[in-house]
């Protein structure tokens, strides 16, 4: 008989903490609904005390999603728990996730406390959360570096206090797989009452071992895994959902099953990447562009004879279909709507009409429109309510001459224009922009990326601009890379707080 592993998705909490990846509530609802279709058991929807935006998102996700448990994060602080309980009031199934650091480093430097006091605070937080909900998860932050004997005492105490799930985070991504597995085994063997709770893994990828550690935890008794789509998350990220789901599907002998509908993996990956403007590395396992591309002659020959020679996963099993690059200028609205639905995006008629209009404009410039292009177009009206918009841009540049740009902006309905020269077309365009928006802004980071292949491709630009001691993140996408750069800069400016 096979065992069931619960999938706890934290894309919208730990994943969303990545600078520049913040989503608005509407986008978070879109992701949450897709996670529901994907079959996750728990959605960590946010950290309600951290901001009104997070609070509101937990409320709206709770209303939008039916069967997964909605989880809200707190510190071991009563006010946090009060606010989380309030944010969860509309959830059909709800969980409070509370916890505290347990490693000596956290106890000493973060809390200026001692081991006994930390246990008292942990127990008090769990008991307090249980007043609001029946399902309370406790996290022992930095459990990866916490000594096992003390960790076992903490876990035993919180289970006695009413914790239903105990989370053992490798917060710093430090553990070796053998070490992490041993930790889970130790808890299974030394904690009285461990069978009254589910052990959860929560691994970070600082040393590239998040998935290996998670699997080691599962093999030693953990029955919940905390994961994110595409492995996004703080620093080097979290364990990626798609990797764990496919490991268990490929290795049936392990005898552990999840509720994940693996055919929804690829569309979910694309949606998250597109909404968060967070590219997926081409060689990323399962969802990277090259994950199923066999380029060496020997491999191609083998795959043509029989795919099983070099492929352990059928791309269809993760939702990669053969039609993923077929839309062209001749594709109709229905084809676009269908493709968007496959990618998990359901648009109302009015929005669909607008996206179709943009699609036709893009198809004029670019022969094949792929999934990434479509997702960028579907997200493009994020700029619709922006105060500052690019009206026009004209640039002349070449070798041996100065680049010159003239640029027009629409600022709250009023038109402004200026021109400037620079050492290249982007420099000239940004100088012209800065003549109109006269503020102390400094471009800190600038990344240009083609979405897929071909010289007619859409370019994506990510930027970081410093203004008034804050870093603002901007994004632009256009077949004209200079325009994409200016759009990304304007995106940053639109986020300025004053
Ligand atoms: O990495 C971590 O320790 C966390 C906890 C807050 C669960 O994200
Ligand atoms: Zn984490």
What does this structure look like?
- This is 2-isopropylmalate synthase.
- Catalyzes the condensation of the acetyl group of acetyl-CoA with 3-methyl-2-oxobutanoate (2-ketoisovalerate) to form 3-carboxy-3-hydroxy-4-methylpentanoate (2-isopropylmalate).
- By secondary structure, this protein is α/β, with parallel strands linked by helices.
- It has helices at residues 25-38, 52-64, 78-87, 104-110, 115-132, 148-161, 177-190, 210-219, 241-250, 265-275, 297-305, 333-342, 349-365, 371-379, 425-436, 481-494, and strands spanning 3-4, 6-9, 42-46, 69-73, 94-101, 136-141, 165-170, 198-203, 224-227, 256-257, 388-396, 403-411, 414-422, 441-450, 459-467, 470-478.
- Strands 2-3-4-5-6-7-8-9 form an 8-stranded parallel β-barrel, surrounded by 7 helices. A 3-stranded antiparallel sheet has the order 11-12-13.
- Helix 1 packs antiparallel against helix 10 (265-275) and helix 10 packs across helix 14 (371-379).
- The protein is globular, with a radius of gyration of 25 Å.
- Bound molecules: 3-methyl-2-oxobutanoic acid (KIV) and zinc ion (ZN).
- Zinc ion is lined by residues 14, 169, 171, 202, 204.
